[in-house]
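Two proteins follow. First one:
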Amino acid sequence: MSACRHELGVGVSTPQPPRQFQPCRQDDVQLRFWIQRGLRPELIAHVIQSQPASIDELVRVARIAEAAAAATAAASTDMSLDRMINELAANRNASERNTVEIRRLAEFTGDMSITVDRREGCDTVI
């Protein structure tokens, strides 16, 4: 009688322990690329310049860039608010000067009267 293949171990694979998933270097590069593509425009330049070597480093650099962008936005908001306050003050000063000029003209022309000749074909102001 001949032995079967299972008894001889021919052509039968022995079960291997499950392997842990280890992403290859190419997968890591592609994942970092897609993460960078999803960043806000004001953050991506900073992240690309830092050239992160891992996803953890990319996240760390992106957080730093986000904090810097928030600080810059707050500073520019303060500057624009200061600019608006200065413009309002300048407009108020111009308005006060115009009011003084209008009062002076009103005093000057107070005794004058204007008569408009409304006859047909006549556009004369007397």
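Second one, unrelated to the first:
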Amino acid sequence: MAEWAYLTNHARVLLHLAHDSGARLRDIAASLGITERRAHGIITDLAEAGYVITQKDGRRNRYQIQAHLPVPEPGTREPAVGEAVALFEPIPGEAELVSGGILPRSNEDLLAEWLTRTGAMLEDASLDFVLQRFEPVGEMVPTGSGEMPRQADEFATPDVIRRDGRWVHEGAFAGAGGRHGRHSPDFLPLWEEMTMLYRAHPGAKW
């Protein structure tokens, strides 16, 4: 399974600095796949907000994260983690595909691993509030952003809790989401554009 992240670049910079307080801008930029100018701008944002203190160490900078600072409460629910969990919705016939060796692992196993690894990284950087504020997603994601008519089998993700020192999911997926063919009207043009790009650039990777 390819490595990927479901965090903002500001959060990823905090994680990087939590592991390496003397990180150079070019190393941070390379790690995140952004420009050095953008990395500098993010650190400036974090410093101005008081979450990072920059200290000179010869010709290098060292960054001290202020983990004790409270994180501002958002005005509205931020569904990013819920949408990430929704990515692990089981596909139709998954149990048979796994038992037959066609799929190497179930989506439930992948979700458990993702939560364990992501939760540990967030806790290291004192950003686990993201998981503490988790709310299950109840719409078709990530395949569409439009409004969907409410149906009896409306899609819902499992809950996310901390148990025995690590983050885990509790409960199961309910209803049917995008992997079962239910999409908002926004999905068709998105699918057509992705298909066009794939055919125009064979072998390209995002």
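SUMMARY FIELD: The two ends are 14 Å apart (CA to CA). Residues 80-200 form one domain.
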